[in-house]
Structures are given as C-alpha cells and as structure tokens.
Amino acid sequence: KPGRLNNLGTKLHTRFEQSGNLDDLDQAITHYTTALTLTPEGHHDKPSQLRSLSHSLEERFKQVGDVLDLEEAIKCSTQSVELSPENHAQRAWRLRSLGVTLVTRLRSPHAYTDDAPRAMEAFLDAMQHPTSHPLERLRASSQYAELLTEFSHLLTASPRLSLLEAWKHAISLVPQCIWLGNNVRGRYTSDGLSIVGTVVNDAATAAITAGEYGLALEWLETGRAVVWSQVLQLRTPLDDLQQLHPQLADRLRHVSHALQLAASGSPSVSTKSQLTPLSLDTQPQSSHGYALEYDKLLTRIRELEGFENFLQPKTLSQLAGACASGPVVVINVHKSRCDALVLSRAGDVVPVPLPELSLIRAMGIQKYLWDLLRAKRFLNRCRGDLQDEDDERGGRVTEMEPPDMMRKILADLWNWVVKPIMDIVCTLVPSSATLPHITWCPTGPLVFLPLHAAGIYPKNERAGTQPSQTIMDFVVSSYTPTLEALLKPRARVIPNGQDPRVLIVSQPSSPYAINCPIPGTTTEAGIVMSLVGESKPLDDANGTIQAVLEGMETHEWVHLACHGAQNRKDPTNSAFILHDGHLTLAELTSHDLPNADLAVLSACQTATGDEKLSEEAVHLAAGMLNIGYKSVIGTMWSISDFVAPDVMKVFYTVMAEQVRAGGELQPAYALHEAIKVLRRSSGRGGMNDFLRWVPFVHFGL
C-alpha cells in the first residue's frame, strides 16, 4: 500500500505540472505523507519517499510562499540523504536534490547563513560520488559551479573546488554520460546529449569570462559531436601500440570492432567495406560488457610509459593542426554572452566578442529562416518539386517577399556575427591574390544558419546604387562538425597524374519516391561523366544500396544525385533514397572507407541536422565525413532539380583543373566558384534567388 500511495502521489504531482491545479499538489503531499507513515523504519523505500515528499513541498512553497513547506522540504531531503547508504546508486541524486532545495531557500527572504556552504557540500559530494550515474554527477558539477558563481560572496571559507575546477570536473564526465554500450540510435535518443550540450556551453562561457580562451576551445571540442567522436575513436589506428604491446593492441582492436558492430544496431553486414561479424557475443545484447572492457583497456594502456594521453581529448596544440588550410572559427552562443574563438595555425586563440549577438537573437534568426523555408516548402519538398521559378505553391510568412526576408537574415548575420569576425581574420592571414580559406564551427542556433552567405545584398546591385558587402568577397567558407574532423591525414589518396575514380549515382525515378521524379539527375550525371576521368555510373535500377556501398569501397569520389531526407523523429534514419530503399545514416556508421576522398551529395537536406541536437551534427554530410571522406558537398535545405546540374557543371570543371594541375585538391574553392557563377546568372539561382544558391555548403578539408 505505501508503494501504491507513493505512485499515486507521483501521478498527481505530474498532473499538477501539466494543469497547475494546486488541489493535485495538495493531494500528492497527503498521499506521500501517508505512504511514509505506513512504511516501517529501516525500509529501503524510505529515502526515495522522503525525496518525493520534499520535491512536492518545495513546489508548493514556490506556488504559495508558506515557509513551513520549505522548512519541511529541507528536513525531508536531509533525512533522505542520511538514510541512503554511502555506496547507493541514487545517493548523488538525493544529495543533489538537497542542494537544490537549499538553493531555493537561498533565493528566498528566509535564507539561513549556512545554506550556501551546505548546498555546496551537497553538490560537491554528489559530483564526486563514484557509484552514481555519471549524468547525475554531471548535473551536480554544473549546479556547484552555478552556486559558486551566484553566491560566492556568502561563503566564509574558500571553496574546495574553484569555479573552473568544477567545470573541468564536469567536462571530464562527458564521455561517461554518452555510453559506448548503447548503439548509435540509443545514444542520440538519450537525455544525456542535450544535458551535455548545455553544460559544455556553460563551462566554455565561464572559461571565456576568465580569459582562458584555449581552455574554452578544448572544452567546446569535447562537447561537440560526442557520438561521432566516439565512432572515430573506435577507428583510430593502433600502430604505435601494436609495435610495443601487440597483445593489448589486438584485444583493443577486437573490442572496438565489436562495439562498432553494436553501434550500427545490426548483427549482419552486407559488403566488404563493413566490419566483419566476429561472433554472436559481439551483438548488442552483450555490448555493455564490451563497453566496460573497453574502458578498462584504456585505463590499462594509459598506465604504460609513453601512452599516458592515449585516446584522450585533444589539447590545444594538437587542435591547431585543424588550421592547415586557414583559420577555424568556433562560435559560442550563450544566454549571458556570445563570442567567437579564432584558432590560428600557430595555436593562438584570438577572442572576438560579439556584443550585438545574443541567444535570443540567434534563436530568432533561426526561427525566421525555418518559418520561411517551411512556408515555401524548402524543408519538406524534393528537388523535383522545386522547378517552378515563381514557386507559387509555397505559403507566405510575412508581408515581405522571400528575397527580402533572406536579405534581412543574411544582413543580420553579417552585422551581428560575421563582420566582426572578418575584421579580425583579415589581420591574421597574409594578403594574397587567392581568397583565404576559413572553416566555421558554430554552436547552438547558429549551426542551422548560412554563415557562408552572410552579407549586405542590395536589391539592384547591377544598377550600381549600392555595392554589396558579403563574406564571399573576403573568404572561401567551409564547415566542420568538430576540429578533430579536420585532423585526418592529408595524404593524397589519388596519385599525381591520375584521375580519381568517380562513382556516379543518379535516381531520376526511385520506386521509393514514385510521386516525385527528378529527371535533372540524369542530366547532371551526364555532365559529371563528361568532366571526370574514370567513372562508374549507377543509374535507376542499378543504383541499389548494395551496389552503391560496394562502389564507395573502390572509388575515391562519389556523386549522389538522388533524393535525400532528414528524419526529424529519428535523425539516424536520415537517408539517401536509392532504387531499392533507404541508405540511412545508421547504416553508414558501420562503414570505414580510409581511401575515400570526396563525396558530393546533390540531394536535399543532407546538411540540415536536428534542432534538438544542434551540437551533434546528425546529418548525412557529417556521416560521410565520419566514414572516411575528406571533403563533402552538402545542402542545408531542399535544392532545385534545375539548379543542381548548373552548380555541378562549374564545380567539376574546376575540380578537373585542380586534378590536372596536381597538388592539393580544394573542393571548397570549386564550390565557391560554382556559386559565384550561379549568382551572376539571370535565371534560376541568380543574385536575388537566395533560397536556391545559399543551401550549397562544403564540409571538411
């Protein structure tokens, strides 16, 4: 009966949270109190019952203001901690709850002089509790830091951990919060990712405020694309370890292999490029055991001389290698301040305050853009539906026409974000006849915004009334989900004097998109074949999932002219639509293509991402980077079946010139030139047709 009463109290509290009806809250407290009375002393349910009662009493204090409720809430929460064994898995949760209740009293007129130190000790004990869930410890670390920021003036003694030490502890818990024992889909759908993103954002902001810009950059890198970073870590070459400790290297390779299989969520594989199954014990049901063994192996390896930093997060000096082709700009968007951190090849981090930008403004621009894209159906249409130049089937968002709306969005991005950064970047790169290259690594709402197209675009530029001022006049832009993605070996996979082998996939009428033919893909495939050397076409029925995956194994370049879709309910099911089904992001994660070079994704929404997981880069372009491609051309929203062939004609013409010239290939410059030509055209995709030329983006090297 006590357990059922406690459950009833929980349901009533939940209904109060939905309805705001105080009668539900009063009844919840009554049932919690009765359950406690009926539960004998020493019963293992007592601590959790006390915690539930404390939570409801604290909530009633917030609603009604009766200080007796708050006093009783703190008393119940204190008892809940006292009755919890030292090694209990929920002790950190109960300690954290006590700290939260004490902070509630700190913020009220009824604060006690010892509330701040008591709350601090509760959070500190919770964050250092070894047997509690890492996510609870992460939350406690964050709350300790927040308390220290807000109430340090009330402390009579120096805190046991400083503010940055607390955030450092929180960052150290990030890898444990997104556990390798889950498959990729499970990691993306866990609560941990959104919490990790917020904590890392707060920690980096604290470091920037303290002037520790390098530390802020390292922390932001730790918290970005956590799942992709884990996938890459499992594929790290073990050459040095193999030479000195071959048995450990073999075992780590075996365990990593098993975890990659489990991550894909599939026990079987279909092509040579995928991992070969080991045995039934490598399947997801035993992946928890492999994850535990993986952690133990890392601990053992790091105890060896010379391997202390084995697979540890990259330091600032290591991350500087990401700047080989130009500065990398990481932008931190926080509710208290916004800053850019410009990383140079020398390893210097130059801070650029962005006083005109705020989290609210960034969210506002994102909403404004996505409302426009939804109204004009650029987020839910295939490339075959974007044929009409007038595009009358889309709805209206405001009284402004779409070109005027995009003009405002791009101008705001220029004034608030890009121009202040350009003023600094232009002082860091040597003057040259060639435009410098810059790589963007934004956070938060900026992840979904076209920084590469920011600028002032007058309505009648050709009339000479007002000159344009755009980012494309100053730099060539790329994006990256993480700095580590730019640290791949730059060895040329295509020998000098040889043409790349190009796999060309076109799907003008896939049975899985029967209502949306895209005949332009046939034209596009013909253009690409005429401009590249050795190529293999896979069109219509030949473009099966199996054939495409096998072709990716043997070709350095792949061109996918087909439907693409971002799945917002399950981003790991975002996919390329081929002749016999969907080639999903989840499927791609089980592949490793070390000789891959360039992927051109001439499909819709291949770099859109998920609003709920902005820091994770859950899109097809990032997926192609992470299976081995060095450069990826993607699209931020749906593209036109008429415009895509024009873009690809110029892009591959420039790429062919680069191949003939030898040296390092620069797909970002080729795309930059293609978009310039498209903007100068008088037809579809011209200067004011922003929705058609802006979505094309370059990721990677």
From TrEMBL:
Organism: Irpex rosettiformis
Superkingdom, taxonomy of origin: Eukaryota
Protein name, UniProt field: CHAT domain-containing protein
